[in-house]
Amino acid sequence: MHHSIEINSLSFSYPDGHRALTGVSLHIAPCEKVALVGPNGAGKSTLILHLNGILNGDGAVQVCGLPVDQKNMGRIRAMVGLVFQNPDDQLFSPTVYDDVAFGPLYQGLTAGEVAQRVEQALSEVGMSDYTRRVSHHLSMGEKKRIAIATVLSMKPEVLVLDEPTAGLDPRSRRALINLLAELPLTMLVSTHDMLMVRDLFPRTVIMDEGRVVADGATDALMDDEELLEAHGLEKP
Q: 2, 4, 97, 177: which sits with the fewest CB atoms below 10 Å from its CB?
């Protein structure tokens, strides 16, 4: 059985010499939901961008048993649904339908198959009535859901989200958490929302200064106030 995500001894420095990751290893089993927490600058976003080859450091990264390299890039980008913090980075088409259809069209599916994918993805995020709406007129919560639908339409095996609840009001936040709880996918979610971590993720990985400093059961890590404090995190 392959891990959904397998990272071994990954290190990465940006062109300016800033070392963002040092010897990071992380293994996530199929359908496991894992939170990634740590202060700003800990390397969380840098790590996430390695999962579909946007960044490429030293070490080994495999997704669903495939090495993340040029040869596999098309398949990897279909398997790993990456949802950025700002949905406006992800939504650029005239209508919601076009945004959600973009990936399946790019995969070469027929118009009928694309329509089916769009319908299913929008229904999974509770946005079926929005197909003809214009993305940039939607609320932040609605945009986040549509951004998730744009990757669900590709039928990914792994969902990777960067700060999904940032900028949401309490009702949208709760709705998004309920949505993520229901999706039967492997999930790695980078967040500062410690209450969501406690509610949603059985396992938490803490990063600081480009390293994994703790990886274990969320309840145990959340009870370790000394550990949390040492890495700029607040007990929820």
A: 2
